[in-house]
Amino acid sequence: MSFASQGFGPEIVRAVTECGYDKMTPVQRKAIPAARKGRDILANAQTGTGKTAAFALPILQQLQDSPKMQQGRQVRALILAPTRELAAQIAANCRDYAKHTELSVAVVYGGTKMSSQTAALHAGVDLLVATPGRLLEHVAENNVSLSQVEHLVLDEADRMLDMGFASELTRIMKLVPPKHQTMLFSATYPPKMKQLATQALSNPVVVSVAAQNSTAETVSHVIYPVDENRKLDLIVELIGRKNWRQVLVFANYKESVDAVVAELNKYGVPADACHGDKTQGARRRALREFKEGKLRVLVATDVAARGLDIQGLPYVVNFDVPFLAEDYVHRIGRTGRAGERGHAISFVGRDEELSIAQIEKLIEQNIHRINQPGYEVKDRTNLIYEVHNKQRYTRKRARENNPTDQSAGERQLRARKVAKKSGR
């Protein structure tokens, strides 16, 4: 199925052709016809499936079909994304799609001065890409109005909820006129997503391109049991001895990210970090050098890496097992794309066995274990049996919030607040 067959004008067809798009991906084939009709959409689609074009192209065509005089501070279409990296990426794609039209595209996110974004908003924008927090800052400063929004997209909505943006999303949806088109895209569909979907959507068309919470069949999953204090040694040995290249490593905390980068660099493996303490420029530079092959390893927290699009990525390593099983799906979704083989490797300490059990239950498969010589751990057979079968484990819920970019001080402050509330 071609893009021209969906009624796109010659300007947009020319743009997508120049982007190298030929045939539609599954999510595009299912979502675009309904989106072109103005229907609300609830889509289950992971990063790398072509979902940006699935929601952006129909919006741009509808804006092109009904041109309006540009009004200051007004926005006609709004796309919300959880992180500045993803927002910047979506905006870049939208600019490519709209380059042969007169439509304006702008992006606002935190980490940069508001003044640099204000001029574009004051002039009025056809399509605005934004992170929720920064958008509301501009609303409070009267730099932008959402009273004329015709199209609203919540991209990676599950991640926005995980990051604590539920109240911000509710506030934004109240600022948008009642009559508008809403499209909600999510890689996973936990219970709290159902509440958001009910709140945001009206008689939506449901689009699913994979089983919920599934992982690509092209990805092989392995676990390396290892003592926590040997993880740094193991990652250096595996990447060095096996000569892995283009390795994206995830850690749960900024301190862990920095430790991994320092250890790899010490042994001559080019690596850099991507987390919340890094400037936007530093993060962009690290990603660019990683894509160009100047870096063999990019180490990141979940928040910083959300939405990173890296073509042909062969390896994803979980230096720390994610706190939420759904985050495992998000992390490894960056490898094994477009039919290529991918490898998902997880280092599992004794205290992380429960998280692995929850991941295996979510993805409905047992993950193969490899005992690396020289890194043997005490037998965990009884522990593994317990976390899969004993009630005290099976009834235990995973942490609902992943404190990915918290500093040690922030975690200590949080712990003190909890202790104070409990009377300790």
Automatic annotation (TrEMBL):
SMART domains per the UniProt record, alphabetical: DEXDc, HELICc
GO MF: helicase activity
Residue ranges of domain Helicase ATP-binding in the record: 32-207
Keywords, ordered alphabetically: ATP-binding, Helicase, Hydrolase, Nucleotide-binding
UniProt superkingdom: Bacteria
InterPro entries for the chain: DEAD/DEAH_box_helicase_dom (IPR011545), DEAD/DEAH_RhlB (IPR044742), DEAD_box_RNA_helicase (IPR050079), Helicase_ATP-bd (IPR014001), Helicase_C-like (IPR001650), P-loop_NTPase (IPR027417), RNA-helicase_DEAD-box_CS (IPR000629), RNA_helicase_DEAD_Q_motif (IPR014014)
Sequence ranges of Basic residues compositional bias: 414-424
SUPFAM superfamilies in the record: P-loop containing nucleoside triphosphate hydrolases
Entry-linked Gene3D superfamilies: P-loop containing nucleotide triphosphate hydrolases
Region (Disordered): 394-424
PROSITE patterns per record: DEAD_ATP_HELICASE (PS00039), HELICASE_ATP_BIND_1 (PS51192), HELICASE_CTER (PS51194), Q_MOTIF (PS51195)
Pfam family for this entry, one: Helicase_C
Domain Helicase C-terminal intervals: 231-378
Renumbered ranges of motif Q motif: 1-29
Keyword Lipid metabolism in record: no
Family: Belongs to the DEAD box helicase family.
Matching PANTHER family: ATP-DEPENDENT RNA HELICASE RHLE, ATP-DEPENDENT RNA HELICASE RHLE-RELATED
Protein name per the record: DEAD/DEAH box helicase
Naturally occurring in which organism (per UniProt): Ferrimonas pelagia
